[in-house]
Amino acid sequence: MKNILLIIGVLFTSQPFAAEPVFCSSPTMANESGCTSTCAAIAAATAAAGDFDMIDNSYGTCIGKATKRPVTIYKLELGKLDVTNMSRCTIWEGDDLVMELAGSTGGTSSKYPITLDKCSVGTTYDSYYITLSPYTSIAAEAVFPNDPSKKVRTTALHAAQGPSTNWIDLSGDGGFGGFGNVDRHYTSLGSTVAYKKLADALSATDLSSEVNVLMEWDSIKTEGLYRTSTSERSGFYCVPGDANDCHEDNSDRYTVIVEMSSNLTLKAGDDTLDLEYILYNTDRGATNEHIGARFLWHWDGTTLKYAGVNPSDVGGELIWSNVRPKEGL
Fold this sequence. Notes:
Elements: E1 3-4, H1 39-49, E2 58-68, E3 70-79, E4 89-100, E5 108-109, E6 124-132, E7 135-144, E8 147-153, E9 186-188, E10 194-197, E11 215-218, H2 219-223, E12 237-238, E13 246-249, E14 254-265, E15 272-279, E16 292-299, E17 304-311, E18 316-324
Antiparallel strand pairs: 1-5, 2-7, 2-16, 3-4, 3-6, 6-14, 7-8, 7-11, 9-10, 10-17, 12-13, 13-14, 15-18, 16-17
């Protein structure tokens, strides 16, 4: 059996793999470029300063800890970013590769080997095309950013996949934080970012005594909110003006593009290789440094309430190595 070391951690975006997270020294609920604001760190800063940093009647986000994030992989291809010549070739295909994205670095194995016989000698590949189930699952938790004694968790109410149409609730003010339709499993922070609802309305209920429930997340629908253009890359939905931030929708599965950290040019006799995903641990081991889930909050001037959750990038790098002949498979 050929081992495939692949802890895939950034398959929810086709951007280049995220770098190891840098945690903000002065975290806030507002977006801070280049660093990660965790809910726990904001809670600690709030307690120290005696002040909460959100304005009245506003939404903000912070990062919590993912405790489970399994995803199913169906196919791996080598390819090019060149939109006129993607040169895709399958190097692995199967039905037994399920990756756990939460936790520490590890490996997995498959009965299907990596083979390069469908790829071209002399071709230089600079990207992976990765086909996976559109549904992943996420279980996560965080402390309240203004009160570390209270917790929010993923919940059961809207955990199911939900309807295929009319799935996102945009009934809120300006499309923010819609909760007008209890049959819709997603709310929003603007019309291009979705969150799984944690309740049927904004809630301040302390969930410390509950458990983290696995919630189903539909990547095709949620990423389709911002990948709306079909003109950048044939057969793909892309962010307008960006031919690399794209996905290919195949109904029951979808394909994302991940740029390689170093290009691969195949030579005669290259029949197989090793792949390893270096995952940056979602539980960092340091105070307040946990990642994997983004929680959406609302502050009305008196009470902080949670609205929803979505998967956040955990960071890492997919590396090829040991390109070699068939001997050893």
